[in-house]
UniProtKB/TrEMBL annotation:
<dbReference type="InterPro" id="IPR036866">
    <property type="entry name" value="RibonucZ/Hydroxyglut_hydro"/>
</dbReference>
<dbReference type="InterPro" id="IPR017941">
    <property type="entry name" value="Rieske_2Fe-2S"/>
</dbReference>
<dbReference type="Pfam" id="PF00355">
    <property type="entry name" value="Rieske"/>
</dbReference>
<dbReference type="InterPro" id="IPR036922">
    <property type="entry name" value="Rieske_2Fe-2S_sf"/>
</dbReference>
<keyword id="KW-0479">Metal-binding</keyword>
<keyword id="KW-0001">2Fe-2S</keyword>
<feature type="domain" description="Rieske">
    <location>
        <begin position="464"/>
        <end position="518"/>
    </location>
</feature>
<protein>
    <submittedName>
        <fullName>Rieske 2Fe-2S domain-containing protein</fullName>
    </submittedName>
</protein>
<keyword id="KW-0411">Iron-sulfur</keyword>
<dbReference type="GO" id="GO:0051537">
    <property type="term" value="F:2 iron, 2 sulfur cluster binding"/>
</dbReference>
<dbReference type="GO" id="GO:0005737">
    <property type="term" value="C:cytoplasm"/>
</dbReference>
<dbReference type="GO" id="GO:0016705">
    <property type="term" value="F:oxidoreductase activity, acting on paired donors, with incorporation or reduction of molecular oxygen"/>
</dbReference>
<dbReference type="GO" id="GO:0004497">
    <property type="term" value="F:monooxygenase activity"/>
</dbReference>
<keyword id="KW-0408">Iron</keyword>
<dbReference type="GO" id="GO:0046872">
    <property type="term" value="F:metal ion binding"/>
</dbReference>
<dbReference type="Pfam" id="PF13483">
    <property type="entry name" value="Lactamase_B_3"/>
</dbReference>
<dbReference type="Pfam" id="PF25451">
    <property type="entry name" value="SCP2_Rv3818"/>
</dbReference>
Amino acid sequence: MRITGTGHASMFIETAAGSILCDPWVNPAYFASWFPFPDNSQLDWDTLGQADYLYVSHLHRDHFDEENLTKHISKDTTVLLPEYPTSELESELRALGFHKFIKTVSEEIVGLPGGVKVMIQALTSPTDGPIGDSSLWVEDADGTRLLNQNDARPTDMSVFLQHGKIHAHLLQFSGAIWFPMVYELPDNAKRAFGKQKRERGFDRSLRYIDDVKGDWVFPIAGPPCFLDDALYQFNDVFGDEGNIFPDQMSYVEWLEEQGHDNNIVLLPGSVAEVFADGSASVEHPVDDLREWFANKKQHLDEYKERMQPRIAAEKAAWSHPEIDVLETLRERIEPLMESAEHIATGIGGPVRFDLTAPDSDEVVESIVFDFLERKIHPDDGGKVRYRFRTERRLIEHLLHIREVDWVNSLFLSCRFTAARIGQYNEYVYAFFKCLSEERLQYAEGWYAEQRPDDEDITMQGWQVQRRCPHLKADLSVFGKIEDGVLTCQMHGWKWNLKSGKCMTSVGHDIRSARAEDA
């Protein structure tokens, strides 16, 4: 099986059934904040776009690149479609002109010509990507198997392993979030939280690697890089151990320290061949891979210079002063707040947006989303649970394009700051990614169906419920106990085992007791 690196989570897989192009992201995403690193814009996307099959793992804009899909990917390619609870991904692709689909069933094998098999596992909780994330398993005719996990976080890897040895395991290692950089915290606290998140991401990926035991590990799906002057400090080139966006070589060097040296880095244009006997070869478009990464800042600065006209053009399109932000929010969002019984209760209070002038900290309008009263109104000076500060023109643009997912646009852009009272509250972000009736009703139904897990396990003298209250990860696999605190290494959530209280978020307590008392 041949794997050509095409940047970030994108790859071009060649099999006996033909080629599969995965997640072809090239253009800036999230208000021109994220760019693929390294730069992949010089690849021959017209040729890559003639692939026999297209796999878009989910709708996050660093995987679903509408511009690249429109301009360069053949509409006659056959789409391998994950089984998601909403039809959005299929509808978006059909709107771009794609018309051939293999609608997979999650975790069921599909046969392709030439003896090739594929399987897609779809994750479907409200917090999985934009209402869904997925992984692709491929078995070539000669028995070579690839698992493209990209940035999905399965709780059970056995579905992939029961069909035989994995020879190529491709997975995320770098951060893909806005925490802690945007939070209004002291610098030392921000660094400490960032260090924890970086280490947690590495540890989680290592757990997957140890579970899969693939012959070769390919770090993919990161990092993004930030080429706007206002965001450049988020790049990992300043020696900050709290930076959550380490690059591929930083991760490989960490893996080597853990005793894992079966790693292959793919630059855009790198070509790896993986064989069923466990061997592999790789050719890169550069002479010395480690030296190339050692010059990362130079590459970033040159990339930044090339992209300045593109960033300026994007910014010029954001302002829509004709939009009355408050009245438009009331018209479109208040009906959703009325329907959001579980989510609004979970938020449990008001959330404020302070809107500023362009490229300024001057607040020109403050708007409160009151989830108790289910109303949107001008700020009246009352206390709020969450506070966001962002440019008014960004909200104008979201309203102008009728964006239904502010997580997959504003929040991932990192073009905001945030403050909160108390712990992280997942319901806040769940609501702002569900700004359509279809998404909201699915999320409400998912939360309504959650029930206490009756199965217990014993760990280090504690009896606890087997499943994580957050996203049902198996705590016998992902749980770790230190000093009476249980950490689920899937997402880093923590519980005080003596009280059962969640230390990470509101409303996710755990059933726990000393084993001798149970």
